[in-house]
Structures are given as structure tokens and as C-alpha cells.
């Protein structure tokens, strides 16, 4: 629906902006965000990930192939952490959880995300189990994993934007 790394279809920035504006107009979502998360943080993160994902698909093939694994993993991991927090700290249930995630998928299909959202406890898929064995300090774990992925992609694609991204991650 929103594009995936497997299909190679991207999303225009205008579409992302339109989708976000529709969500803002949704009364239930607006009240949910006011109660659950700081509003500017959620919208900033969703807008950032949707915009970057759309821009990645406009790059040439070499840069796109170098950057998508790290960015896609970051989006998937962020969604998993958000699901955990929504369930544990805010008591949000299955279908409501799924509607509050970043609408981009990389290695996790929509069905897998729905299954995780519907489950009583958040179970981390095997592909990300080594990163999020437990949910203590998830941001630090995600940051380390993404930095590792960017460094790996920089080694695999030495003449790509992955080098710039790896450098920026190291400077954080």
C-alpha cells in the first residue's frame, strides 16, 4: 500500500503529506495522540520515516540498495517498540495498535505486523530477536543496530550514500 523494498514502489512526498493530514483530521487519532504520546514527536517521526522512505525510492539503484536495509530495519524496529509501549504502558488493544504505527513495512509484512499487534504480549520476530531480546533501553539498542547496519552497507557499497549515513550515525 505505501511501498515496500520488495516491490520497489515508492511513495511521493505529496502523498505522504496528504496521508498525514488525513490522519490529523481523524478525531479519534488526534485524541489518542494527545493522551498517549507527545504530539510533535509522533508526527515528526511518522513524517520523517514516510518522507525518507519515499525519497529512498527516487535514488539510483546502487544508493537505494545500500540505504534501504538500514532504514527499513529502523522503521521495523521502531514499530515493534511502539507496539510494546502502546500495549504495556497505555493499554491499547490489537487493532488500535496497528493503526498507530508508521505505515511503512520492510522485512515484516502487514500480516506479521497485525499478528504481533493482536497478540497479548509483543513477541519480537526472529529476524530482530538479537536486537530486542528484552525491551530495556530499546532506543540505544536500535541506535547501535542501525549504526552497525550503516557501517556494513558502507563496506559493501563503498561509493554510495551509505558512507555518509554511516558517518552521520557515528557522529550522533
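^ C-alpha cells above, recovered residues below v
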Amino acid at each position: 500500500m505505501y511501498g515496500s523494498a520488495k516491490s520497489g514502489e515508492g511513495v511521493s512526498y505529496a502523498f505522504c503529506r496528504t496521508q498525514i493530514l488525513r490522519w490529523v483530521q481523524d478525531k479519534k487519532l488526534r485524541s489518542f495522540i494527545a493522551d498517549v504520546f507527545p504530539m510533535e514527536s509522533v508526527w515528526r517521526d511518522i513524517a520523517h520515516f514516510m518522507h525518507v522512505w519515499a525519497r529512498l525510492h527516487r535514488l539510483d539503484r546502487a544508493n537505494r540498495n545500500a540505504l534501504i536495509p538500514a532504514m527499513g530495519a529502523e522503521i521495523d524496529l521502531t514499530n515493534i517498540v511502539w507496539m510494546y509501549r502502546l500495549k504495556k504502558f497505555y493499554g491499547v488493544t490489537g487493532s488500535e495498535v496497528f493503526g498507530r504505527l508508521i505505515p511503512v513495512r520492510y522485512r515484516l509484512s502487514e500480516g506479521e505486523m497485525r499478528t504481533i499487534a493482536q497478540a497479548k504480549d509483543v513477541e519480537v520476530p526472529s529476524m530482530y530477536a538479537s536486537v530486542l531480546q528484552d525491551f530495556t533501553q530499546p532506543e540505544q539498542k536500535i541506535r547501535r543496530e542501525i549504526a552497525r547496519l550503516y557501517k556494513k552497507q558502507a563496506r559493501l557499497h563503498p561509493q554510495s550514500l551509505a558512507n555518509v549515513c554511516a558517518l552521520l550515525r557515528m557522529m550522533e
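The helical segments are 13-25, 27-36, 39-56, 61-90, 94-98, 110-118, 138-156, 162-171.
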